[in-house]
Design brief:
The protein is an all-beta fold. The chain folds into 2 domains: 121 residues, 7 Propeller (Methylamine Dehydrogenase, Chain H); 70 residues, Immunoglobulin-like (Sandwich). Helices cover 0% and strands 52% of the residues.
Length: 206
């Protein structure tokens, strides 16, 4: 039986073509008749085949975010921006949007929000989030269990990307072991609430 593929993003261009970002399945194009999949072995995408975000600019360039950086595809050429060749603050691009001026708004895992426009706005950090009051989660990614290291005691919740609460428990120790083996593959948020204090974190389940 073929493995089910999780869709993480879908963007539709001006011709109605769908560009679908998947978990471990690469970037898939569907023009209404034909399906074409791009991945680390047959394109310029970074080798990790999970595509977290997609967007299309006014020139019909496709922009793809994943754990390997931000990739631009103009229909022929693939260009990937990373921390080593640009001002991108973190290589793990989680979310992506392009405004009417063509400015890219790039949400990253550990570097906050970055802004980029080829016509005048270099990569810059607009906002840095989760640098304080952050829960440390390891190993990350994980398949079966995670350890949550924290500075507080309180109520811990694990939520999916839609904000649905999936696991809850009271934390009384600075390191807590959590069984995530029953969770589907994907990205999750950790929230630890203690009085008025809230600590947050993220992890990926393989």
């Amino acid at each position: 039986m073929a493995r089910a593929v999780d869709f993480w993003s879908i963007t539709i261009d001006g011709d109605g073509t769908k560009w679908i970002g998947t978990y471990l399945g690469g970037l898939t194009k569907y023009d209404g008749t034909n399906w074409t999949t791009y991945n680390g072995s047959n394109s310029g995408l970074p080798i990790d085949n999970s595509v977290h975000s997609t967007a299309i600019d006014g020139n019909r360039n496709k922009w793809i975010g994943n754990i390997g950086g931000l990739t631009k595809y103009d229909g022929t050429n693939w260009t990937t921006f990373t921390m080593s060749n640009s001002g991108l603050p973190d290589n793990f691009v989680l979310s992506l949007n392009i405004d009417s001026r063509g400015t890219k708004w790039i949400g990253t895992w550990d570097g906050g929000l970055s802004v980029y426009n080829e016509n005048g706005v270099p990569f810059s950090i607009c906002e840095n989030v989760l640098t304080e009051n952050r829960v440390k989660v390891f190993p990350n990614p994980s398949l079966t269990n995670i350890t949550i290291e924290n500075n507080s005691r309180g109520s811990l919740s694990i939520l999916n990307i839609n904000g649905k609460q999936l696991i809850t428990r009271q934390i009384t120790e600075t390191e807590a072991q959590i069984d995530i083996s029953n969770l589907p593959s994907g990205m999750y948020f950790v929230r630890l609430t203690s009085g008025k204090s809230v600590e947050v974190g993220k992890f990926v389940k393989h």
